[in-house]
Specification:
Layout (H helix, E strand, L loop, with lengths): L1 H21 L6 H7 L4 H7 L3 H28 L6 H12 L6 H15 L1 H22 L6 H18 L7 H15 L5
Helix pairs in contact: 1-2, 1-4, 1-6, 2-3, 4-5, 4-7, 5-9, 6-7, 7-8
């Protein structure tokens, strides 16, 4: 079983690096096979076609995003009490993806592909539904309005990965703005 998992990890990482380097338009099963140091037929044993490979790659990418949030959550949980503000700032620091980071390209490629691939679009949609429910549950431990917090953060964070370099605030300014809005949201008169 370990050998199969290792092969799958190699294939997924190869796909990600090709998407980041060459974009979705240049991705092919043959290139992934070459990058993974295997034959095309061996690659097709694991993923019958490019669509199946892209679904697995997107699932892997989104799993990594969730793990990033959980890593931040776990690092803060060791403190007896931490303010929501600190959690929000730490999460935003971890998940606001700036241009130039490798996951920036991956995020853009998944979205671009999902516009042309119905199965991938549905997978992305299902991921976000599950991710939002999970974030609401996580944030509900310290916020009175976790749905509103998630409703603000998720679209902003995702849009930031595409437009962040164009807005007039740097990352710190963006974190200040969003955490300030969330603070206002949680005040008793809201």
């Amino acid at each position: 079983m370990k050998k199969r998992e290792d092969k799958i990890n190699i294939i997924i990482r190869s796909t990600i690096s090709l998407l980041q380097e060459e974009g979705a338009g240049n991705l092919s099963m043959r290139k992934v096979a070459e990058r993974s140091v295997m034959t095309l037929s061996n690659l097709q044993y694991y993923y019958k076609d490019k669509d199946e490979l892209l679904l697995a790659t997107a699932a892997y990418y989104f799993k990594c995003c969730e793990e990033e949030v959980m890593k931040t959550w776990e690092s803060l949980k060791m403190f007896e009490a931490f303010p929501e503000q600190k959690f929000i700032r730490e999460i935003l620091s971890a998940i606001l993806v700036e241009e130039g980071r490798s996951d920036f390209a991956m995020f853009r490629e998944i979205w671009a592909l999902s516009l042309r691939n119905k199965a991938l679009a549905e997978s992305v949609h299902q991921y976000y539904r599950k991710y939002c429910v999970w974030l609401v549950e996580l944030i509900s431990s310290f916020s009175k309005y976790p749905e509103k917090v998630v409703g603000l953060l998720v679209p902003y964070v995702e849009g930031y990965s595409i437009m962040g370099s164009a807005i007039p605030l740097d990352k710190k300014g963006t974190i200040d703005l969003l955490s300030g809005l969330i603070d206002l949201l949680n005040k008793p008169d809201h």
